[in-house]
């Protein structure tokens, strides 16, 4: 009924080694992750426990056979790449050829922003530690989604949903929302087409890489709705909606609205509140057409014959969400739900009035305003490499080099969080999910945690022959309210384990 | 470096006076913002990687996910 639900994000970072364009990205990514792990994790390093992972499970109810799967779809076999769990409950690892940060499970949009931003700082910190190693290399990470030469890498969102919701309803009501939400949460891109062969600016980093409406793949034939179904929770009660269509955002407001508005729409779908049919005639081409028109005038055709702009389509969802929250919660809605509704409305109003009014809030507009200023001042055409550089360097995560960071420092980007809130989230887990238990165990008993994953913590206890697996299948248990006091008073892992199982 | 110069384009298709006022207001705010942006370009010039063309060319990634 609100923006609250169990959710999180995963970001793959672009990577380059200064002065070595041909450096192996897997080696460089491992170096980054290992450098952070060795210098921050005490005692033994907990392994990732793969027992519950099944990346070939399809939300439509069948498994893809391993023989049919592309090698890049197999993530559950430890390929010897770096993979660690942090005291904030997050996972830091190498996925294919990129370092990746998965936030711990949280329950509010602002907490997704908080731990995702903490992830950026962890990645930056990791590059500094890698550079200080003997023979250390200077590695630079980019929070973006494409090299503009044909390769794309993902920024995924995860939302826990009720299993009882029909997947067909999710597809029907979520597709038009995903096609249009880029006007709010796009990150902006210089280059049109997967390899950027055409010159110009578009709203989304990712739009050109989506080729089908629904599917299991994430690396080939990318679908608007991904059907990967690994709940990391009780599969009879829950599914995990794995969203692969988002851009990597630097702006806190963009991420906050991306997560908050999507969570609201999912809630309406679960409650069967959306009865209107907003099905688009051709979602994949509409996605691209919207992205390619920063003037926001592009119309998309609905199957019922209507033609709407993306902003108008978003407004239909906004109005539904207002009615939904009013009807279900009235004045009792929580503060973030109210805030998301107000901000969403305000952003849509200004997008219709003049998008540049949002240069201090949305990534794509902030980026476009910089580009427009360069074009005006220096008379640059869209084919000029300097504009592509501005696009790329906007996402450089180094505070002194990244253009997003320069805008923040100049007071030009609205912040939702303080530096202190982000810095503390580099170490502290969120309080309201099982990530609290995972993180506190790693912080307090690092020498006893043999392995951990989203749904387990495995302890190696002195005097016990076998490893002890503590399942954490319910994401809403193991919170500070449940185990905070127990962790505070347990002096050893054995004491904690005995109290939990005794 | 390309020498193509951009024409400022501004559409004015509404006629009522209230809309005009709003638009003037918006235009003024935008002008103020634009002037402001020019200041930051000077700052950004100092941190932009040199040799944009080579830099952008050498940023090659493998696909992910």
Give the biggest sheet of chain B: none
Number of strands of chain B: 0
**Element order of chain B: H for helix, E for strand:** HH
Relative helix content of chain B: 55-70%
| Model regions low in confidence, pLDDT < 50 over at least 5 residues of chain B | 1-19
Q: Strands of the biggest beta sheet of chain A: in what spatial order?
A: 4-5-6-1-8-13
Give an overview in words.
The complex is a heterodimer of chains A (502) and B (65). By secondary structure, chain A is α+β, with helices and mostly antiparallel strands. Among the domains of chain A are: 144-415, no CATH class; 435-501, no CATH class. Helix content of chain A is 38%, strand content 16%. Chain A has helices at residues 25-40, 109-131, 167-185, 252-270, 283-291, 310-329, 335-353, 363-378, 385-394, 403-409, 419-424, 435-444, 480-489, 493-501, and strands spanning 7-12, 14-17, 47-48, 83-85, 91-95, 98-102, 139-142, 155-162, 189-192, 198-202, 210-215, 222-226, 238-243, 299-301, 307-309, 449-453, 456-459, 468-471. In chain A, strands 4-5-6-1-8-13 form a 6-stranded antiparallel β-sheet. The longest helix of chain A has 23 residues, at 109-131. Chain A is globular, with a radius of gyration of 22 Å. Chain B is mostly helical. Chain B has a domain at 18-49. In chain B, 58% of the residues lie in helices and 0% in strands. Chain B is built from 2 helices and no strands.
Topology:
The complex is a heterodimer of chains A (502) and B (65).
Chain A (H helix, E strand, L loop, with lengths): L6 E6 L1 E4 L7 H16 L6 E2 L34 E3 L5 E5 L2 E5 L6 H23 L7 E4 L12 E8 L4 H19 L3 E4 L5 E5 L7 E6 L6 E5 L11 E6 L8 H19 L12 H9 L7 E3 L5 E3 H20 L5 H19 L9 H16 L6 H10 L8 H7 L9 H6 L10 H10 L4 E5 L2 E4 L8 E4 L8 H10 L3 H9 L1
Parallel strand pairs in A: 3-16, 11-12
Antiparallel strand pairs in A: 1-6, 1-8, 2-7, 4-5, 5-6, 8-13, 9-10, 14-15, 16-17, 17-18
Chain B lengths: L16 H31 L4 H7 L7
């Amino acid at each position: 009924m609100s923006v609250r639900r169990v959710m999180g994000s995963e970001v793959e970072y672009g990577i380059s080694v200064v002065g070595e364009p041909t450096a192996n990205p897997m080696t460089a990514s491992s170096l980054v992750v290992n450098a952070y792990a060795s210098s921050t994790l005490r005692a033994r390093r907990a392994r990732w426990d793969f027992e519950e992972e099944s990346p070939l499970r399809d939300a439509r109810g069948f498994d893809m056979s391993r023989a049919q799967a592309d090698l890049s779809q197999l993530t559950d076999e430890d390929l010897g790449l770096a993979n660690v769990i942090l005291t904030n409950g997050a996972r830091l690892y190498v996925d294919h050829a990129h370092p990746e940060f998965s936030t711990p499970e949280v329950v509010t949009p602002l907490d997704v922003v908080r731990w995702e931003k903490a992830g950026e700082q962890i990645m930056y910190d990791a590059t500094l530690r890698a550079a200080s190693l003997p023979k250390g290399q200077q590695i630079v990470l980019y929070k973006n989604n494409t090299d503009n030469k044909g390769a794309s890498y993902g920024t995924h969102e995860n939302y826990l949903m009720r299993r009882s919701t029909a997947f067909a309803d999710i597809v029907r009501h979520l597709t038009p929302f995903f096609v249009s939400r880029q006007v709010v949460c796009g990150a902006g891109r210089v280059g049109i087409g997967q390899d950027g062969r055409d010159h110009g600016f578009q709203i989304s980093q990712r739009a050109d890489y989506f080729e089908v409406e629904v599917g299991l793949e994430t690396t080939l034939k990318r679908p608007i709705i991904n059907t990967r179904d690994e709940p990391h929770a009780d599969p009879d009660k829950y599914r995990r909606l794995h969203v692969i269509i988002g851009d990597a955002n630097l702006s806190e407001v963009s991420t906050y609205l991306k997560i908050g508005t999507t969570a609201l729409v999912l809630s309406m779908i679960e409650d069967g509140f959306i009865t209107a049919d907003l099905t688009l005639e051709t979602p994949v081409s509409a996605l691209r057409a919207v992205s390619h028109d920063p003037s926001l005038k592009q119309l998309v055709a609905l199957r019922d014959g209507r033609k709407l702009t993306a902003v108008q389509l978003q407004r239909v969802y906004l109005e539904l969400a207002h009615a939904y929250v009013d009807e279900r919660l009235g004045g009792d809605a929580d503060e973030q739900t109210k805030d998301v509704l107000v901000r969403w409305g305000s952003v849509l109003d200004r997008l219709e009035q003049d998008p540049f009014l949002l240069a201090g809030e949305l990534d794509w507009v902030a980026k476009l305003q910089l580009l427009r200023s360069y074009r005006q001042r220096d008379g640059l055409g869209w084919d000029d490499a300097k504009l592509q550089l501005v696009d790329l360097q906007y996402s450089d995560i180094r505070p002194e080099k990244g253009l997003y960071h320069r805008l923040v420092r100049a007071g030009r980007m609205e912040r939702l969080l303080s530096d202190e809130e982000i810095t503390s989230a580099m170490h502290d887990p969120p309080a309201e999910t099982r990530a609290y238990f995972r993180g506190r165990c790693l912080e307090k008993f690092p020498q006893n945690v043999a392995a951990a994953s989203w749904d387990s913590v495995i302890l190696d206890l002195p005097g016990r022959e076998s490893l002890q697996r503590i399942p954490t299948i319910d994401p809403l248990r193991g919170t500070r309210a449940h185990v905070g006091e127990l962790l505070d008073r347990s002096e050893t892992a054995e004491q904690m384990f005995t109290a939990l199982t005794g | 470096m390309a020498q193509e110069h951009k024409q400022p384009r501004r559409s004015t298709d509404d006629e009522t006076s209230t809309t005009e006022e709003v638009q003037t207001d918006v235009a003024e705010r935008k002008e103020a913002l634009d002037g402001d942006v020019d200041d930051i370009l000077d700052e950004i010039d100092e941190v932009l990687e040199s040799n944009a063309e080579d830099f952008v060319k050498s940023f090659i990634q493998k696909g992910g996910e």
